Amino acid sequence: MAESTEQNDLQVVYLYDTKKPTHPLTGSTKLAKGVALQPGQTTIAPINEKENFFNGQGWTDKLVIAYEFDTDNNNQYTDPVMIPEGQVLAANQTFVKPKDGLYWPIRFNGTEWIGITKEEFEKAHAAEPIPVSQSTLALNALGQQFTQAKAESDKQDQSVNAKIDQLTQSVNLLGQMIAKAQAPQTGGTN
Asked: What is residue 68's three-state secondary structure?
C-alpha cells in the first residue's frame, strides 16, 4: 500500500522547450505534488494527437507571425518570428506586418512601420564611381583589338570559303567538259 500512496503524491508535468520561441512540447515527467514548477514545465495537458505549442496559458496547435524590433535602437525592425497563437507579445513584438515598399531603416512607431522612400534610400546609398586602373584600360584595349581581329578573320574565312566553293564548281564543270570530250562518239557513218 505504500506504493499507491507514493503514486497519489505524484503529478504529471508536461515539458516544453523555452529556448525556441514556439515552445514545442518535448515530453512529460512525474513530479511530487506541491513541488514548484520550473520554466518549461506545466501541469496543463496538451492537445491530443496534434503538434503542441505552449503559449503561456495553454496548448495550441497553431503558430502566428510576430514582427520583432530593437527597443534599444529606435525600434528598428529585426526579424519575423513564429510564436504560439494566444501568446502574450513581448515588449519588442507586434502583429502589425511591415508594408511592402519600405526601405531601411524600418522602425515601429507604436502603431505602424515607418521606412524611407526608394529615392531617399538610393540617395543615401549611392555607389561611388570606381576609378579605372591603367592595367584595366590596357586589358580593355587588348580585348577590343582581339574582337576586331576576330571579326576580320571571320570575314576572311568567309571570303576564302566562297572562293573555294567557286573553284570547286569550276573544277567540276571542267571535269564534266573533259569527260564529255573524251567520251566515244556514237552515231552516224562517215
From this structure: strand
